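User
Take a look at the entry that follows and flag anything odd:
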Amino acid sequence: MYDPDLRIQEVIRQIFHRFRELGSARQVLLAMSGEGIHFPRPSHGIRLTSFEWQPIRYRNVISVLKNMFYAGVYAYGKTGRQAKIRDGRAHVTYKNCKSPEDWDVVIREHHVGYIDWDGYERNQAQLAKSAFGRAGGVKSGRGGGALLAGPLCCARCGRRLHVVYTGRTPRPVYRCDNPNLLL
């Protein structure tokens, strides 16, 4: 189901096209932000009646790539409630993600999508392959003395710290590469 706003349609199509071309959500972000492309953000919160166009962010790219709605799929019941006993009292939490097999309704080809189902599955496989810290992924840990490489973030900019081994007897040094990035 396409948005009636042609500008929104175009930015969504560009995200899928660039991901197919570049193979990485981060590279899509860098390419699109380098060209000054903006992404719509609702200006009235819940009501999607008007938008403010702001510079595209990583979460915009990821949310489009991971949302099966853009592949023409309608899904209902992806989250549920869960009740647990804590300190002798019932504690109910909502928005607990269910596995796809437990969803209440999934209808493929429900509406016209920006990509087909096979394209969506290829995108998910590519995202999973390049996910940070996943076993077998291209960015998964490769061993070494730097055990905190994944969870440590820069106190100044918030990005993940990178590890560099220095010295005659290689010792890990954590550093921020923020000055070297385009953003």
